[in-house]
Automatic annotation (TrEMBL):
GO terms for biological process: carbohydrate metabolic process. SUPFAM superfamilies: Concanavalin A-like lectins/glucanases. CDD domains: GH16_laminarinase_like. It comes from the Bacteria. Residues 1-262 form the GH16 domain. Residues 1-19 form the signal peptide. It comes from Sandaracinomonas limnophila. GO terms for molecular function: hydrolase activity, hydrolyzing O-glycosyl compounds. Belongs to the glycosyl hydrolase 16 family. This is Glycoside hydrolase family 16 protein. Keywords: Hydrolase, Signal.
Amino acid sequence: MKLFYPLFLFCLTISVANAQQKFIFQDEFSGKNLDTTKWSYNTGGEGWGNHELQNYTKDRKENVRIENGHLIIEARKEDFNKNRFTSGRIVTKGKFDFTYGRVEVRAKLPAGRGTWPAIWMLASGINYGKNYWPDQGEIDIMEHVGYDPSVVHGTVHTKAFNHVIGTQKGNTITITDFDKAFHVYRMDWTPETIRMFVDDKMYFEFPNTHKSWEEWPFDKPEHLILNLAVGGDWGGSKGVDESIFPVRMEVDYVRVLPPPALRATPSL
């Protein structure tokens, strides 16, 4: 005899299972100040390898602050240590480093030519090859360049696949209200695949080929990075509209869950 279960019971079971999952990292930005037990600042203004124009500052609320339950990363036009712009870049390195998981960041992005916000990940150590980048890899959960509004990028870089040699792997999705509404930018990382989503819609997958670390170095601890760059080789390739500043990226929350069970590949 075959048994048939109602669809609503199946959905309820999934919902309860998801609700019982515990975060391995969580910041709801509900306090008065940035939680420095979870985040550190990257600072400086030497171009960050991309000829960027900003100076990333530390403990300066003009650039990084908590406001109405949101993290604000703000880029401003002002002279600061030989740079014409200031901004913020925060990282979990040394405070939360992890291997595999589901990352969810609910954020609203800035608009304007010359802005370059990013939600991304880098390796927390050197495990492969001779160089930190690209040998250790890079996972870009969300990038948006202001001269190309509404186009959100999800990208993976490795020694074999990176933009310097024109082989990087990635895709884009159109989000027309990127600067007016919050969206959930998500990445699922398992030993077999990296998948990118916006509001649960998958638009990019990078499978593990199991050939070499040059293609898949993503089996070692990584950390999260949130930043808002100004200009740079990509973000500033069409110039910078200096009339738009100050501009901000707002983040409602950052949550990391254990890696999801690997299911059949959703259709793109």
